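Feature request, filed as a ticket because there's no other form

It would be nice if the structure record came with a short human-readable summary line next to the tokens. Right now we just get the raw output. Example of a typical job, pasted below so the devs can see what we mean:
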Amino acid sequence: MRTRPLKVALLGCGVVGSEVARIMTTTADDLAARIGAPVELAGIAVRRAGRVRPGVPEHLITTDAEALVGRGDIDVVIEVVGGIEPSKHLILSAFEQGASVVSANKALLAKDGAELHRAAAEAGVDLYYEAAVAGAIPLIRPLRESLAGDKVDRVLGIVNGTTNFILDKMDSTGAGYSEALEEATALGYAEADPTADVEGFDAAAKAAILAGIAFHTRVTAAEVYREGITEVTAADIASAKAMGCVVKLLAICERAADGASVTARVHPAMIPLSHPLASVREAYNAVFVEAEAAGRLMFYGPGAGGSPTASAVLGDLVAVCRNKLNGATGPGDSVYTRLPAKPMGEVVTRYHVSLDVDDRAGVLAQVASVFAEHGVSIDTVRQQGRDGDASLVVVTHRATDAALSATVDKLRALDSVRDVASIMRVEGE
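Raw output as currently delivered:
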């Protein structure tokens, strides 16, 4: 075993960073045995000094992240700060100093992954980011390495624990969205400002990363269609139950059947209770990967939290340190297919459309004719009426988003349709 330690700089010491520091300190001998050399935590950069950080060596704390990265003797930089800046600048500085980087920064990777990969390649160092998607679940490495000889056609999953917790509580207790969010916040699953989670930004960044790796192309967060869960109502949950379904916020990445394009989207969807993703409860994540030779693979586990995310960070740290010792680098960016991202209007899926209509003869025929006019065929219809009002639930066969949108616009113009109460996609048939 090499006796000279590999030196590691840690940027960020919040929930994840403090757990990384603790594990590195308490398992130093095991890490050294697995890597083949000691690993030394050389410094920890934080925004504000003076806070009590249990288990974190106080003498390693600094507020000068740039000086820490620029020391010249750092072998690996672990970035768990998040956000775009100063994280991007610090990572690029680390590459210039010859340091490899382990990051959990999904937002940065989904926005500027091309630039970061290019800089890492030019510097001859590694950029690893298993912790950026689905916490402790090994997902990026299997896609990038284990399935490197296969053709991945689809990635479908639950990649945000906060939204899964909220939707699960709405389903299991009958709570409304606001009540379920309040419980998620009280338990620490939701941030004080939950926008990134509940509006789908977090899941969209992860979908961009997954689509890029799975299909060997460049996908940015801006190319991912995104809907959050803030408009999901108790009535939507009840409608799903009536169909034998549950509502989940799904990240869906697909290669087109003709192989000429890809799609990446994040939105709530009804999935049947028979689908394995329907049983994913609380704040857990699960991802299906469908490959040509391997078939359907499912990855399941805790998708967030200090310890689970730290586990993924440390797994990358071990891999990067091994590469350093061997004078090599791991798999880099693979974007040889250069497939364009198809707009959402061209994506084909099924829909659940709930309408409030007049309870009188001929309304159903009128509504059905609008669907037919736009080439959207109907699978099932459920109608309930009382005192002149009626609810009409239409489940379609597969149609494009553009065709469904045109249908809904026409329905809203009908005198007999009082309101289009909700529209939700149906997946996993």
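Something like this underneath would help us a lot:
The chain is about 35% helix and 25% strand.
The first helix runs from residue 15 to 26.
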